[in-house]
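Entry for the shared binder. Reason: the reviewer on the internal report wants the predicted structure included alongside the sequence.
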Amino acid sequence: EVQLQASGGGLVQPGGSLRLSCAGSGFVLDEYAVGWFRQAPGKEREGVACISTSDGTTSFEDSLKGRFTISTDNAKNIVYLHMNNLKPEDAAVYYCAAGGKHYSSSPWFKFAKHGMDYWGQGTLVTVSS
């Protein structure tokens, strides 16, 4: 059974950092692109970042470049989202998902939120003082 387990969310003050983890089981992560997505109350789900774990190709939501990075530990089947200088508008439920490798490349990233094959449950990130 394919499963993705997201974890690492919590309450952080503005300007703080968090690292989210996405652990995959039932499949090998380097056969897929793994992406992070978020959804705030009353808003549509949006793509945050995506990585092809086989070749390291990454894509990011433009507004998050420089603050968010994505990395992978293939040996552990885990993809991380590193979030720095968090702002109140970053508060959301963050989801990880796996899908075709093409979603990690820039032209395809904007379609990833509709096309990923497997989704994990979300982890809540709250940014507040």
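Summary line for the report: The mean pLDDT is 94.
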